[in-house]
Amino acid sequence: MRAAVLHEHRRPFAIEEVDLAPPGQGEVEVRLHASGVCRSDWSTVTGDTPSPLPAVLGHEGAGVVERVGPGVDTVEPGDHVVLSWLPYCGRCPHCTSGRLTLCDVAAPALLAGTLLDGTTRLSLDGRLVHHYSFLSTFADRTVVPEASCVRIRRDAPLRVAALVGCAIATGFGAVVNRARLAPGSSLAVFGAGGVGLSAVQAGVLSGAGTVVAVDPAPARRALALDLGAAHAVDPGDGDPAEAVRELTGGRGADCAVESSGATGAATAAFRSIRRGGTLVCVGLPPAGASVEFPGPELVRDEKTVMGCLYGSCRPHTDMPMLIDLHMAGRLQLDRLMGAVYPLDEIDRAFADMLDGAGARTLIDLS
Ligand SMILES: [Zn+2]
Ligand SMILES: [Zn+2]
After folding, report:
1. Which of 81, 130, 137, 290 keeps 20 to 30 A from 150, CA to CA?
2. Which of the ligands is closest to the CA of residue 91?
3. b/e string for 195-204 if b means 16 or more Cβ within 10 A?
4. Average pLDDT, whole number, for the chain?
5. What are the Cα distances from residue 311, in Å, to 63, 169, 265, 275, 325?
6. More confident position, 49 or 58
7. What is the number of the ligand closest to the CA of 171?
8. Closest ligand to 88 CA?
């Protein structure tokens, strides 16, 4: 397979022919068509998120099942699939209580650089290469756990489907699954990349009264307004929490979603919510980072702070539903696509992401 291999932190990717072993028990080989680039990949490039190297990164992909390993019975060759970077066992206490993103088997192994059995299917001239988040989508094919394969309708565009696999499920789920936003509520979204703009659209679809997007990139603020936000705030213009309070009648937002993971953003988002309001944090801060909230305000104002991994999604339920909403014209998921690059220009794709150009940059693997 042709893949972008990261050998060292903060170095360009190397495009190489990587050997891919056949799918083992409970595993599936997928011919990838598209992969998004996500800030979580970048955190691994920089070393802020520890995951073993060399590795094939990428965790937001879609494609077509090529062959299946022994014991696989939920997908078959030819099926179109979105890849979920957090498989689940379906049997542990978290899974059986519906908290699939906390699966006791898959979640602890997320950054181990292996598949679920603790080994890899990737090698380069006989040397071991690691997986990333069980998926490794910066490649033209991959082997993944069966539980990472979410079958979708065949008429859905695979580029949009790729983005459903991380950004869209995460942003949508933060609003719908975690905050359970009530109609008429005000929503502030900090960070208007692929995750934040999915949260904006989820807010609009949920009947939010007012949606305010906060982002330093002018193009992203414009896109947020196009996708239904009533206001877009440039944090460079002054305290964004104050701006959100002003735009919500002086009270503060009923709910805020922090999608950037940037230092200080969660604190600003906390300050932007009303007394009794809810903050959902989905943007991942660097390993070791702490987040500060003013203690008296937390208590006196009875504010709620929630962590949210992967939109607290149930992949096999939520992802086909998101695709259906898009195909019915209710979610404009194609508007989240920025530039599309071939695999050998992956470094440019990351440069776009860091520049805030477009919502989500894609790699074409078809
Ligand atoms: Zn991601
Ligand atoms: Zn489980």
Report:
1. 130
2. 2
3. bbbbbbbbbb
4. 96
5. 22, 6, 18, 24, 17
6. 58
7. 1
8. 2
Residue 351: count other Cβ atoms within 10 Å of its Cβ.
13
Angle, vertex CA 37, rays to CA 31 and CA 39, nearest 5: 140
Q: Which of 249, 267, 246 is nearest to 258 (CA)?
A: 267
What's the 228 CA to ligand 2 centre distance in angstroms?
37
Report pLDDT for 42. 94
Which numbered ligand comes closest to the C-alpha of 109? 2
- Cα of 41 to ligand 1 centre, how many Å? 7
Residue 286 pLDDT > 90: no
Could you read off the pLDDT of 88-141 as tens digits, one per residue? 999 999 999 999 999 999 998 999 999 999 999 999 999 999 999 999 999 999
- At position 319, the amino acid (one-letter code) is M
In what side-by-side order are the strands of the sheet with 122-124? 19-20, 122-124, 127-129
356: nearest Cα among 197, 128, 245: 197
Stretch 302-325: mean pLDDT:
98
Distant-in-sequence, close-in-space partners of 242: CB < 8 Å, separation ≥ 6? none
How close is the Cα of 314 to the center of ligand 2, in Å? 12
Per-residue pLDDT tens for 145-190?
999 999 999 999 999 999 999 999 999 999 999 999 999 999 999 9
Ligand having the closest approach to the CA of 37: 1
> How many A from CA of 265 to the centre of ligand 1?
18
- Ligand 1 centre and the CA of 249: distance in Å? 34
Residue 359 Cα to ligand 1 midpoint, Å, equals 13
Q: Among 122, 119, 84, which Cα is nearest to 103's?
A: 84
Instruction: Return the biggest CA–CA distance within the chain.
Output: 63
Instruction: Tell me how far CA of residue 196 lies from CA of 90, 164, 229, 245, 294, in angstroms.
Output: 29, 13, 11, 19, 24
Q: Which ligand is nearest to the CA of 164?
A: 1
Q: Per-residue pLDDT for 270 more than 90?
A: yes
The answer to whether the CB of 187 falls within 8 A of the CB of 211 is yes
Residue 35: nearest ligand to its CA?
1
The ligand that comes nearest to the alpha carbon of residue 261 is: 1
Q: What separation in Å is there between the alpha carbon of 96 and the centre of ligand 2?
A: 7
In 3D, which of 311, 204, 259 has the Cα closest to residue 39?
A: 259
Calculate how far, in angstroms, residue 111's C-alpha sits from the geometric centre of ligand 2.
16
